[in-house]
Amino acid sequence: MKYMLDAGLRASGCQLARRLTLCLMLLLPSAVSARGGIEAGAFSAYTVARIELLGYRHTRPYVIEREIRTRVGEALQTTTLAGDVQRLENLDIFSSVRVELIAEGVDKVRVVYHLRELPPVVPYISYDVGDQDGWSFGPAVKSVNFLGRDVFLAGYALFGGRTSYLIDLVHPWMFGDHVSLDLDASRIVRQNDFDGFEETSSEFTPRLGTWFGDHLRSSVALSYLRFESDLPGHTLSVSDVDDLFRVGASIGYDSRDDWSNPNRGWWTETQAWKTGGVLPGAGDFWTLHLDGRRFQSIASGHTLVFSNLLSLQSGRIDEDVPQYMDYHLGGANSLRGYAVDDLGHTLFGTQQWLTTMEYRLPIVAPTEISVFGMSADLGLGGTLFVDGGLAWSDREDLDLGRARFGVGAGLRLLIPAVDMSRLEIGYSKQGFTIHFATFSKMRAQRLRLR
To answer: Which residues, listed in sequence order, are joined to residue 266 by a DSSP beta bridge?
Structure first.
């Protein structure tokens, strides 16, 4: 099982830590109120007289105002107003966003945005679970709106199945057209069962990104990875310590309506990394990811999701590419229906292809919950899925007859600012397998969470 980040994404210790911030609060007795909608039809010919922002306490006003495209003096547009609400919800710092329209005179309207914030800073007990490492627990602190600037900042220390120390910072809009900074730093000690050694990995990865219009994305990144083995023969370096320096870039397209729980739109990304070679340190190989996801609405809250991920690496294992950077299939975040400890020993390689189709249906729509003056929104959904996958290193192993497929069903607990937790039952030629994981499967497979 490989836990070092591929494509410079967050270290796997973040996988479950991110969703415990509010869960303990949500288990207490609470008052529930429905999320507000927009009823703008009666005001479609009115001119916007004023815009008011109510309910926020910690968030800087400019963070809210830059997401609002409804303008004073212009005609009220229902689609623009709905877009305002969606952009504010996508910030993941509010438990609810509601718009109130108040007539002023004969043909003017006042637009009032009612906002309720998530707790700005929360200390809590976090946990992490993996198919191989099992459970880990430890203290954590997280801010989804650090300094009121829509900055995500979190720190974790987890102990048990593995030992993890992680710091995660995301500033999604520093200046310009969504110029962003993403910084990941981690140190993880775990038993690498696939390769048979105790693995100590450290990472420091800063990434700068920007937008081009509403949908195009691009980023550049630098990354330093350090791998240490307690046994000889598992690193490229004879010292049993590999220092890997990487530089990467990506370009993508994102037209999803809701970033937390998409119902329609596309998310695609092409990302390339160069490790070693002209750069200092061990290794000399390229990594290319071609990742595409389609979200197709088929009814209110019902969504079909199609996903394909192709990951390619140049070079030979133990010569150019370290053995701990190959792909092992199976498990909740790769090919459901198989346990990674079973399939991962036979279906692995430096290249992988993963495909998924999911039918997502709502059970409990995301609902705002208030506890002791603090608010969050929580939802529950169901899913039916089909997974397929193939891994290979040599060209002769690129045979669709070696591909494996699994089917199943599960539940998805939707948690604000952190994505989701999943409980699923998969079925394959090996029989039934129970999976528990976090993040959507499509996101977690890029994080190489096993």
So the answer is: 294
